Amino acid sequence: MTKKRLALLMTFLFVLTGCSGIQQQDSSHNSHNNEPSSLTYELGSDNWEAVTTNTDSLETLEAYQFAVEHPEVLDYIPCYCGCYEEAGHESNKNCFVDEREGTTVQLDTMGFG
Fold this sequence. Notes:
Layout: H1 2-18, E1 39-42, H2 49-52, H3 58-69, H4 71-74, H5 83-86, E2 97-101, E3 104-107
Antiparallel strand pairs: 1-3, 2-3
């Protein structure tokens, strides 16, 4: 039962974190003006500076960590903020993880809200 609750909680956090900026969307949303252009995380490094230098939110950090460690779960969670139209996102995973190549993960800034 604990795993089910954890999965439900993480799903809830992803939907909230990924879509927290819905009311603030405008034409500047596409360019992510106040956000870094590239966020890189090396698998196994436990160096989350790419996230922690951009937010103090523990929930956001945990959301990125979960997305990197369990992308297969987020593949089944649709994103409701409209990023599929603007950024071509196919699932909530794309709001946190842009690309994974070897041990390098390019993070998406959409998870910052």
